[in-house]
Design goal:
Distance between the termini: 50 Å
Radius of gyration: 17 Å
Strand content: 15-25%
Amino acid sequence: MLLQPTSTGPLAGQVAVVTGAGRGIGAAIAGKLASLGAAAVLCGRTRSGLESTAGAITKDGGKATAVVCDVTSLESVETAARSIEASFGRVDILVNNAGISGWNGPLHQLPPESWDEIFNTNLRGVYYAVRAFVPLMIRGGSGHVINISSLAGKNPLPNGAAYGASKWGLNGLSYSLAEELRSKNIRVAVICPGSTNTELSPHEGKDPARMLQPEDVAHAVAMLVTQSPQSFVSEILIRPTLKP
């Protein structure tokens, strides 16, 4: 038996998959989409974090399900997709948020295994998720794919060249994917936040109170998935009002 979302709101009846949803930006996005009526499916590698986020969402009256998934493994992502399809029969929103910052230092000193870890998570993982979930959107006749990138994908990032390159690559992937899926009534957008206050991305010497907050990114996601059918916002750049 398929699970039927019963919430009210502009996203009522829709199913939203969010990767890296155990904490930080992913948790904020999942909570925001659930508050708008979607059934939020939280994906990530650590069950305890996912269940904590899901518990907070349900306590606030939203609907959330935790699914353990490692985006660097195609088998893991495909298993998650089959489980979600069996439970809900559809996916309307895919937010590719899972990512790591990795190495902080000159590129010529970067260990090859660190390069692989950064790209396998930040870029290959998005490809795996698109491969697994977009066919469900095509079958349903509509959908949103939102990739969480970074301003490091628009500007130079000394001592973070691999991370920056992975985000430049994610931006390029997003632009091309958007053109591939427009005719399928699936909108693809990329969000590029600046310095954001999360435990995964500390910024030495910056004032956390002036940095972007996870809720700022979640707000941008909400704008994208509730825009009018005739409009297509393909990219959002977010900067803090005051330099931190």
